[in-house]
Structures are given as structure tokens and as C-alpha cells.
Design brief:
Elements: E1 12-17, H1 25-37, E2 43-48, H2 50-57, H3 61-78, E3 86-89, H4 94-104, H5 109-113, H6 116-124, H7 133-147, E4 153-156, H8 161-178, E5 201-204, E6 211-216, E7 222-224, H9 239-247, H10 268-276, H11 280-292, H12 297-323, H13 326-354
Parallel strand pairs: 1-2, 2-3, 4-5
Antiparallel strand pairs: 6-7
Helix pairs in contact: 2-3, 2-7, 3-12, 4-7, 4-13, 7-8, 9-12, 10-12
Length: about 375
Amino acid sequence: MTSNKSDSAKPRLLTGDTPTGRLHLGHWVGSLENRVALQDQYDCYFILANVHAFTTRYERPEEVRQSTLDIALDYLAAGIDPQKSTIFIQSEIPAIAELTFFFSMLVPFPRVMRNPTIKDEIRDKGLGDNYPFGFLLYPVGQVADILAFRPEIVPVGEDQVPHLELSREIARRFNQIYCDVDSHTSDSDYIKAGGLFPIIQPLLGRVKRLVGTGGPGENGQLLKMSKSLNNSIMLSDDADTIRKKVMGMYTDPKRLKATDPGTIENNPLWIFHDTFNHDKLWVEETKERYRAGTVGDVECKKKLVEVLIELIQPMQQRRTEYASDPGQVLAILEEGTARANAIAEKTLAAAKKAMHQDYFSRTLYFEHE
């Protein structure tokens, strides 16, 4: 496959996903729509972080493999254009593993354990003390995922911001120790001052955490959208599935009939309209009717069904096209991974040179059957 993509003049962007299941609307507003929109402005690299999936699924390798391919299809269906952007598989980039080991020397263990995302995952997944050492290593692995490509920005959801802060800390420390950059240098000047790694900037989506279609949790707060909580609308859902999920959506439990006044605040139905419905006049007028009890949940849900189907239908069309030719998807991943290897190898060589560990020239050969 021939690519028309050129990365000569564009600033670089990197982000990705750990393949633990297909993507949903929360992923779309949290990061994916930004990725699609920025493809013309940035040299985009999107990582399928399959190694990280082993931190909690090491005994299910077939599942990790299938999830990796599923998310690749989600990317393509959502509008990631392989002629403009690079999609690649983490486990096929040896430089990431080497950089992970070097970077792990630059961060104290207590600092890793202060990462709130680590604590949240241990709690939410009920891991207790039964998690592999690799689970604690993966935040440093994420740093290597990012810095191997020396991007300027990283579009992420809110829950990934702590990982990005660790990336910024390790980049500063590497540059100071091995590139003699003064610790008082401003973040934007590290490269100009001779540093190897940029101090990357996060780019948050327009919605920090999209709520799910279900009700609140034990603490009374609405739960974020999650496949494991069975409260998600997937980007791969067909029209009938979307309709069924929306019509069963949690709304205002105190509103027993359509003529009762309804509450807008903390109501998933209206959070979704605010997020996805571009007809803002309809939204504001119907909110007033909802508060006054002159419009029912069913009518508002039917409108939301139309809005979501309009959003996802083009994705379904692209999904059908790519899914009909799995070989084409694998070819896209193979080419993207080769391109990513070229970038990561250059970074690793530069890092080893800065660390005075560049004893021999290095050539990697990737054979494909």
C-alpha cells in the first residue's frame, strides 16, 4: 500500500488506546474527535497499546489480539485516515521497551504510586494486592510510548492527565541529566536549550467525562460511560441498538408521567443533548418545556436517537467497507508500524548517544511472511 502522508513540516501528535474493548461515545468526545479533526494540522501517530492490556489480561492473549484489531477498525471507521495518519502496534516497536527500562531509572517508586489513575484502577478493578509488577511499570511504559515519538501534543481524556504529567517530569529529568539543560529552563524552551525530549502538552476533549446511560452509583453520582458497567453506546452499535439503549436511558426518577415537571441537572438525557445535539435552539426550548412538564421523555429520547444515528452512521459505512477486507486493515497496521519504528529507532539512538551508551550502530530487520 502506498501512502501519500508527509510529515516533513507538521508538528507531531501522539495518542492511543489500550485495547480492552471497543470504543464508545465517551472515547469520541474525550479524545477521538480531536484526533480526527487534527489530522491535517499535525503529523499524527496513534498507538494500539496492546502490551499494556497484558497488565490485567495476561491470561487472555487471544482477547487482547482481537481487541487490538477491533480498535484499529474503530479508528478507521471513526475517520482516522491512513493516508494522513499512522496507526501502529505497540508490541512491534522494540525501542519502546528499551526506553521504558531507561526511563524507569528516572522516577522513584513512591512517585509512581502517587499516580491517582493507578490507585483508581486498583480499586475499580478490585485488584487488591493481586496485580503483576508490570501493572506498576505501565505508567513508565506510557511515558516511553509518548516520548519515543517526541510529539508536541497528546490528545487524551481527563483520566490520562496524571500519566502525561509523569511524561513531562521524566522528559525534564532526562534532558537535565543527559543533555545538560538547566533546570530553570521553561518547558517551551527545552529543545532550544539542547534537550532531546519536548515537554509535551495535553489536549483535553470538549467533555471531560461523559456519563453513561444508566443511573447513579452508590455515592449518588452519575457513573461515567464504561463498557464494563453496561452503560455505554459503542461507536460500532447499529441504529436499532442505539435506539434501544437511548429509549432505556436513565432520566429523572421523580418524573412519573410526561406532565410532571422534569429536572435537567444531572439528567443523562440532557447531558447527551448538550453534548451531541447541534440544534442548540431546540435544546434550550425543549429544556424549558421539560421543566414545565409539557414534553415527555419519549419525545426527547427519540430526538436524541436521531442525533446519535446521524453521528454514527458515517462511521458504520466506513466500518462496513474496512471490515469487508481484513487484509487491508492488517496492511495499514503493518505500514504504520514500519513508519513508527523508523521514528522510535531514531529517538532511541539519540537517547543512547546522550547517555553515552551508543557502542555500535544498530539495524533492525523486520521480516514479513
